[in-house]
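Provenance and format

Records in this collection were gathered into a single text stream. Each protein contributes a sequence line and a token line. The two records reproduced below are adjacent in the stream.
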Amino acid sequence: MPDRLEKHVKVETYSGYRADERPVRVTIDGRAHDVAEVEDRWYSPGVTFFRVRLANGERYVLRRTDAQEVWLIEAYRSLSRFTSH
């Protein structure tokens, strides 16, 4: 089960037919990470969620509050949880 974070994050987006269509880069604690894949997206009134896999294999659920243009990390799953040492 992913950990719930609700941490502010900077997200760079691709804007195609609409603004902030999908995340392409996420900056967490000052470190930028490319988004390798948008695995899913869903909508609630005034909020858009994206489940993304970063180039380093980590997965995040990002929440964008449309009216405020605020991005939060809603959930996180580390690659290290699934690899053996």
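Adjacent record:
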Amino acid sequence: MRKTKIDDRFFESTRGRIVLLLRICDRTVDELSKELGVTDNAVRAHLLSLERDGLVFQSGVTKGFRKPHFSYALSQSAEMLFPKPFDSLFTQAVAVLKKQFPPKKVEQLLRQIGSELARPYKPAGKTSLSTRLDIALKALTDIGGVVTISQNGRTLIKGKSCPLAAAVVSHKEVCKLAETLVSEIVDKDVQEVCDRTGTPKCRFEIG
């Protein structure tokens, strides 16, 4: 079988759209079929090709009425399809800060960066929490994140992909930058509970 061709037109194809959907959250064949408006068999053929190329994998299984349903997720390799500018530069900059300053000062500087990044997004006047959450999602998306809101007894911003993953792998305090960014925009206390196992994933609990 031929290897998937990755170019500027890839994300316009059905295969590319599958990758974009899985970047947001894991999905089953049936869910992808409904989202894309194609048959289950077509989705399976594309997933088989993407699995062969190491871009997706079976991430779980749920019981179905007749048979189990497998869910699919993007592999860590697939994140390389979404290059984030200045990853290496920022990671090195944080490393230099940690050599020059004590931990509390480093966190203070990172929070200051987060506050400055939030400034253009902060709405003027009174706005609803829902509106501010939407703005926070846009801010995180603009710097390369893929995030959604979960409200199940608590409000949680969940990221499928961390916009600062390259730096977070070596410097977990970088999460405080994003925590401050979100907190400044939503105007509430925010606690980062990020998942840093494997590929880092953003988690921000809104107070």
